[in-house]
Amino acid sequence: MARDTQYSAVHFIPEAKVDPEKWNTIPSDDVVDRTAAAVKKRAMTVIVVDSGDEALLALKKIIPKGATVMSGSSTTLIEIGFEDFVAEGESGWKSLREEIFAENDEMKRSELRRKSVSADYFISSANAIASTGEIVACDASGSRVGAWPFAASHLILVVGINKIVPTLPHALDRIREYVYPLEDVRARRATGTASMIGKCVILAAERKSDRTTVILVREALGY
């Protein structure tokens, strides 16, 4: 079961004035199955699980001990307990995110962040996934999506089925009409600074079928 955290969408919806009935619904099993099949045809591995707990368990099984791991800032990863698990220090992974947070020098921290996109395993979520198979994420600075196209050796995306939409144009509309307003509210509350749609990545296909794994979760996760 996904955890309700201070970063969960429910806390920002009234202020963001978005329409969750349009952009945050749970699709039918048929739609989920069709989406999973479409992603697989694009040379990505798909694992469908029933809960955030099962998603976290899948991550633990996929990532080997000793691997360098970096995660993009993600409400989904917080809700499934991934960030807490890594912070406990019992994973056996080398957490580049923890190294970045431990560095006090701003220039060194910035350099570590740039290098982190080439981690053995980059863990993230997505803002939308089309039933036709494309997966989309946007970020203000690009730090959350920089590893997606090439840099990371392995990319693992944990995505709630609430983010499934019919087509790629719908995916982009979901980001503009739903994701961005929520993230803008979160950013203003947390930092006093507005967010923006700065950098977007569309993961349309892979050449190597063993690079990207999508863990599709039958819950509403993130936004």
Helix fraction? 25-40%
Q: What is the class in the CATH system?
A: Alpha Beta
Number of domains: 1
Class computed from helices, strands and strand pairing: alpha/beta
What is the string of SSEs from the N terminus onward?
A: HHHEHEHHEHHEEEHEEHEE
Mean pLDDT, to the nearest integer, reads 96
The quaternary structure here is: single chain
Q: How many extended strands?
A: 10
Q: Can you walk through the features of this model?
A:
The protein contains ten helices and ten strands. It has 223 residues and is α/β, with parallel strands linked by helices. The chain has one domain (9-217): NagB/RpiA/CoA transferase-like (Rossmann fold), CATH 3.40.50. The protein has a six-stranded parallel sheet with strand order 1-10-7-4-2-3, sandwiched between helices. It has a four-stranded mixed sheet with strand order 8-5-6-9, with helices on both faces. The mean pLDDT is 96.
